[in-house]
Amino acid sequence: MSSVPNQDQKPKNSPSSPSHNEENAWVEGIKTIGLSIILALGIRTFVAEARYIPSGSMLPTLEINDRLIIDKLSYRFTEPQRGDVVVFNPTEELSLQYNDAFIKRIIGLPGETLEVRDGQVFVNGEPIEEDYIAEEPQYKWGPETIPEGEFLVLGDNRNNSFDSHYWGFVPRENIIGRAVVRFWPLDRLGGVDRSF
C-alpha cells in the first residue's frame, strides 16, 4: 500500500524559493534598466537628441527656451543644405571660450562666394530671399569664398547673432545635426521649416 505524500512537505522538483525569485526580479530589473540606458545613449549619440534654445539669436524662427529634436542621422547620408537650421560644435578658435553647441541657419555652401551688403545676402552675386529674418542685416561682410568642407552660418536675428560674420566658417565635421521638430512649448509644436 502506497502512502500519500505529506502535503506540507515540499516536493524535490518544486519551484525556487521566494527569496530566489526576488533575486531574479532584481537582476532582471537591473538588466532592463541597463539596456534602456544603452539604447537611450545610442539613440542620442547616433539618431536624435533634444536641445533647447538659450538665446534670441534665431528669432523669430526659434524663441528662447524652445525645445527641439535634432536629427543626427540624415547627415550621414546627405550633405547639409542652404536653409537648414543646424546645431554644431564650436570651431577650434571658439572652443577656447565656448563649450556649448551653437544653433544657426546654413546660408553659404562650400565653394560659394558670399557677401552681405545693403541689407541683403548675396550668393555668387545673386541676392537671396529671406522671409524668416527678424530684420535686414545692418552690417557689411565679404565678399568671401567658402572653403571646401565648410559652411557659412548666420542667425535669423541677424543684427543680434554671434555667427559666421564674426568668427568665420563651420567645418562639416563640427555639424551635429539638423533641427527638425519643435516639441515645446505645445502651442508652437511643429516642424522647423527650411524656408528655401
UniProtKB/TrEMBL annotation:
Source taxon at top rank: Bacteria
Entry-linked Pfam families: Peptidase_S26
All copies of domain Peptidase S26, residue ranges: 27-184
Region (Disordered) residue spans: 1-23
Location, primary (coarse class): membrane
Uppermost EC category: hydrolase
Family to which the UniProt record says this protein belongs: Belongs to the peptidase S26 family.
Protein name: Signal peptidase I
Organism: Limnospira platensis NIES-46
Lineage: Bacteria, Bacillati, Cyanobacteriota, Cyanophyceae, Oscillatoriophycideae
